[in-house]
Amino acid sequence: MLPPTHSLLRSNGAGAWFGWPEIPAIESGIRDWFDAGSQADAGRTARGIQEAAFREVPYYPLGQFRQPYAFRRDMAGMVRAPIPVLWNVRRG
After folding, report:
1. How many domains does the chain have?
2. In degrees to the nearest 10, what's the CA dihedral of 50, 51, 57, 61?
3. Are residues 24 and 13 in contact, defined by beta-carbon separation less than 8 angstroms?
4. What does pLDDT average to over the chain?
5. Does a structural domain hold residue 33?
6. Does residue 32 belong to any structural domain of this protein?
7. 65-73 average pLDDT score
8. Which domain holds residue 44?
9. Which end of the chain lies in a sparser environment, N or C, as judged by fewer CB atoms within 10 Å?
10. Is the pTM of this model over 0.70?
């Protein structure tokens, strides 16, 4: 996940996930990540964000799951997404 789109990592008080963490080191790291001039700089900034998250613990990661799904070859209109999106689907 990218730091700015990781909703559980955001630590901007009332705008954050449940518990409303306020962790300035994470939020300033996210702003710095946007300003990174190269991928190497972005990587270093992301590591700093991760270190701050391990120190302050804005959330507890309880696991991850993936919903398996399969579709027939003759299905058309499938939208590629992390979860099955079943609109615009037709046979043929």
Report:
1. 1
2. 40
3. no
4. 87
5. yes
6. yes
7. 72
8. 3-56
9. C
10. no
